Amino acid sequence: MPHDSKLTTIGFDADDTLWQNEQFFRMTEKRFAAMLADHGEAEHISARLLEAERRNLAVYGFGIKGFTLSMIETAIEVTQGRVPASVISEILDAGREMLSHPIEALPHARETVERLAGAFRLVLITKGDLFDQERKLAGSGLGDLFDAVEIVSDKSAATYARLFSRHGDGPAKSMMVGNSLKSDVVPAIEAGGWGVHVPHELTWVLEHVEAPVAEPRFHQISDLGQLPGLVESIANPG
After folding, report:
1. Residue-range domain boundaries for the chain
2. Quick one: which H or E segment has residue 127?
3. Do 9-20+104-235 and 22-99 have matching folds?
4. What is the CATH T-level fold of the domain 9-20+104-235, as seen in this structure?
5. CB neighbours (10 Å) of residue 70?
6. What is the pLDDT of residue 238?
């Protein structure tokens, strides 16, 4: 890659960008609501769970372990402290099952990463629990294609500025690709890089923000199969 290229480094989100993730949270949430059916409608239970997740993000961070603790907290709240130990045990079992689900790659993930590897520095940038993210990366078989892997507590403009300076030529010559406008796209653009949105049919409500359509470095593609063409147009304009 020429030193003066406009684009030298590409960051990829992991969950719901390279492989399925949110669907397992949705399935477990339905199972959780069923456990507490005697204490409220599913919509009410889910709303209380979301409130707990929102409160607990700053304490537990992102990931399955924090989600499991929020389910336990919600169960205690909606039962007014009378939740049976058997239900707590069932919640813990559900969390463990989430931590062992097989990795299901999203369409075009492998061929796109393989095609871009070598021509660009590829960095996996994901937030969540360290052990779980390492497990999923190992199970995906994509680990060897990345030049670096960063598992972070949150994603901000400062995060991208730091990581793209550490692993690349700074954010101005870097691109972040992901399904979350809030975590992957907007802060990468704020840092001075490109932000590419790959929408997923399921996106956690706490990740919703408006698309920065007026930003010249914002792009949206329907799937990862369109990424190599977009990258080529940016790296070699004209």
Report:
1. 9-20+104-235, 22-99
2. strand 121-127
3. no
4. Rossmann fold (3.40.50)
5. 24
6. 65
CA 164 to CA 8: how far, in whole Å?
10
Residues paired with 122 in a beta bridge: 10
- Exposure of 156 in the CB half-sphere (CA atoms within 13 A): 3
CA nearest to 129, candidates 69, 202, 190: 69
Nearest to 110 by CA among 141, 133, 137, 132: 141
What φ, ψ does residue 104 adopt, rounded to 5°? -120, 105
Label residue 100 exposed, middle or buried (CB < 10 Å: 0-12, 13-18, 19+): exposed
Q: Which of 132, 124, 134 is nearest to 155 (CA)?
A: 124
Residue 115, C-beta contacts closer than 8 angstroms, at least 6 positions apart: 228
Indicate the CATH number for domain 22-99: 1.10.150.240
pTM for this prediction: 0.86
What local confidence, expressed as pLDDT, does residue 179 receive? 95
The residue type at 228:
P
Residue type, 158: A
Q: pLDDT below 50 — which residues of the chain?
A: 1-4
Given a contact cutoff of 8 angstroms between Cβ atoms, the answer to whether 177 and 184 are in contact is yes
Q: Using one digit for the tens of pLDDT, what is the confidence trace for 90-146?
A: 999 999 999 988 899 999 999 999 999 999 999 999 998 888 899 999 999 999 999
